[in-house]
Amino acid sequence: xxxxxxxxxxxxxxxxxxxxxxxxxxxxxxxxxxxxxxxxxxxxxxxxxxxxxxxxxxxxxxxxxxxxxxxxxxxxxxxxxxxxxxxxxxxxxxxxxxxxxxxxxxxxxxxxxxxxxxxxxxxxxxxxxxxxxxxxxxxxxxxxxxxxxxxxxxxxxxxxxxxxxxxxxxxxxxxxxxxxxxxxxxxxxxxxxxxxxxxxxxxxxxxxxxxxxxxxxxxxxxxxxxxxxxxxxxxxxxxxxxxxxxxxxxxxxxxxxxxxxxxxxxxxxxxxxxxxxxxxxxxxxxxxxxxxx
Length: 293
What we know:
By secondary structure, the protein is α/β, with parallel strands linked by helices. The chain is built from 11 helices and 13 strands.
């Protein structure tokens, strides 16, 4: 029994005759009659009462009609679902994010466009540090990641592309003596208690290069307070533990007792990267990568 047998059977049942069903199916009537006979022989009995002017279903034919319609409907759903998967229009994308990427707006813009184009694709966001993103992508626990750290040069299984950049702002406890300035410079915040923005565990990865070059990152050995995500950095600022230099856009986070001031200075910017597996084959993930880069 093949799907075409079911299609032929349903057409005869719905048209009430072989000639009309043959015209509907664009086949010759003898071929249609032979296919229905083969089906009846396989099932072991007649499905139709063949009258001179009208062909009607037998009791067994009525039962088989309901089942045949369900089978064809399921086959059509399977075809449609598979096509969507092959085209990257279904499935899911698991995205690792750092807080700054979310608060800066770059991630929302990309997801918005992707969701509009492929609304059936499930999107899963997980906030995690850059180094954990790398490990999770390699372990197939995440598909892509947004962070301030590119793919490591000594890991051929990972690749990354720059997708956005951001300048910096200074996060201050409300009521801090520097909060009265419209802008701040590196010189003005020199000597202040700076919270270490620890995005990784390797000393070279502790903060973006731009902050180190500007002297805005305390050496790990001298930092009294550290945090590994944007929101936890802001929590320490709100507690009065110190001030922090964070990517612009973070000011959208309405953290109580924290105020933000622009940080003036040439070359002060951080680049955000999209990390992914070099050998990615999942159609939905590949479609996201095309839309996001």
